[in-house]
């Protein structure tokens, strides 16, 4: 549908594995002093001195996590890195290195991998991380991507899921639901395209939510902002599966309850209008949609004055005693129990 018209196809067989890795990674430069040795030996060597290393891994599978009929490979490279960096920032740490491993079938030429690595390179530049290793191998069908992200933080900076206390405020960055609705728009246009391949989709009215789906940004800026505001969250998690399930993770790990207020959930105007177009409830989408990669965290009430004027942060509720349970307080002021509808269960409905 949005396929690259680049017709040049260089077969991977001519390069060999080490030739391929060297070809794809030769322009990556080392930016961190903690990277003592990057690509080029049996293993990378990292030295964080007085800091802790934070490590997170994700595996992305074609047909399950991404669809190449509307996901350009450069965006896929960028997004694959974002998915991982988001988990590092959710620890209140700074991402410093990544490894990138891919398995691909022989239907992909070298040019396709170059596009993918161009996206990885852009992410490395924007987020200041070093590519320090990885692997490329063949798959019988489709593409698999595994990225490991490494970050660092001093012990006193680290934030876990388990620190929320009664009366803490529940805060979210950015706005929610856009990535899921962007996916709905792209899926719809894909079906239109199947029926009439001459029909070029007009995605302009949906540019914000399509970008949220195809090119999300991990919230490094929020970690930096919190540092500047001198606010250390009591607990934190990134929103990969939808607000509802992430809140439940925080509450379960912290052994607390919460009240989330429906009218406080931040929604972009495009999310509201597109929800109406798809005859879906925008609150349900924010609660269950997923892939927004915003940060959800709790703060002590005494820190509220430091964040209240900030347009990037919204207080959406508060932490309650465990016995009170986890609830959504609706616009009609009724309390309903929060349920963990993740991305997958939501799709099956
Ligand atoms: Mg996470």
Automatic annotation (TrEMBL):
Q: Which enzyme type, at the first EC level?
A: transferase
Its pathway is: Cofactor biosynthesis; thiamine diphosphate biosynthesis; thiamine diphosphate from thiamine phosphate: step 1/1
Name the residues that span the membrane. Answer: none
**Which residues are involved in binding Mg(2+) 1?**
57-58, 135
Q: Can you give the residue ranges of the PurM-like N-terminal domain?
A: 40-152
Q: Which residues bind Mg(2+) 3?
A: 42, 87, 238
- Does the record's keyword annotation contain Oxidoreductase? no
Catalysed conversion reaction: thiamine phosphate + ATP = thiamine diphosphate + ADP
Similarity comment text for this entry: Belongs to the thiamine-monophosphate kinase family.
The name this protein goes by in its record: Thiamine-monophosphate kinase
| Organism lineage | Bacteria, Pseudomonadati, Bacteroidota, Flavobacteriia, Flavobacteriales
Q: What is the name of the gene encoding this protein? A: thiL
């Amino acid at each position: 549908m949005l396929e690259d018209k680049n017709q040049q196809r260089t077969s991977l067989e001519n390069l060999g594995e080490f030739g391929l890795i060297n070809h794809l990674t030769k322009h990556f430069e080392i930016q961190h002093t903690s990277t003592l040795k990057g690509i080029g030996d049996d293993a990378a060597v990292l030295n964080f001195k007085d800091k802790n290393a934070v490590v997170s891994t994700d595996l992305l599978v074609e047909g399950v996590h991404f669809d190449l009929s509307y996901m350009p490979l450069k965006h896929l490279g960028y997004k694959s890195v974002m998915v991982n960096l988001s988990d590092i920032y959710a620890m209140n740490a700074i991402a410093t290195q990544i490894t990138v491993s891919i398995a691909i079938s022989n239907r992909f030429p070298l040019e396709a991998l170059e596009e993918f690595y161009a996206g990885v390179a852009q992410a490395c530049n924007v987020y200041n991380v070093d590519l320090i290793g990885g692997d490329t191998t063949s798959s019988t069908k489709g593409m698999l991507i595994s990225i490991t992200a490494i970050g660092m933080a001093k012990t006193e900076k680290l934030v876990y899921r388990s620190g929320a206390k009664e009366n803490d405020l529940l805060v979210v960055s950015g706005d929610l639901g856009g990535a899921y609705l962007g996916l709905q728009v792209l899926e719809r246009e894909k079906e239109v395209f199947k029926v009439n391949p001459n029909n070029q989709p007009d995605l302009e009215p949906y540019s914000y939510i399509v970008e949220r789906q195809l090119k999300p940004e991990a919230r490094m800026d929020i970690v930096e902002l919190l540092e500047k505001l001198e606010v250390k969250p009591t607990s934190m998690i990134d929103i990969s599966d939808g607000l509802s399930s992430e809140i439940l993770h925080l509450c379960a790990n912290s052994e607390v309850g919460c009240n989330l207020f429906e009218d406080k959930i931040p929604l972009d105007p495009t999310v509201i209008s597109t929800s109406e177009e798809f005859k879906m409830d925008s609150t349900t989408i924010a609660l269950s949609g997923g892939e927004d990669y915003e940060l959800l965290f709790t703060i002590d009430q005494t820190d509220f004055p430091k964040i209240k004027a900030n347009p990037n942060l919204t207080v959406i509720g508060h932490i309650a005693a465990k016995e009170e349970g986890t609830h959504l307080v609706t616009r009609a002021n009724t309390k309903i129990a929060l349920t963990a509808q993740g991305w997958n269960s939501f799709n099956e409905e």
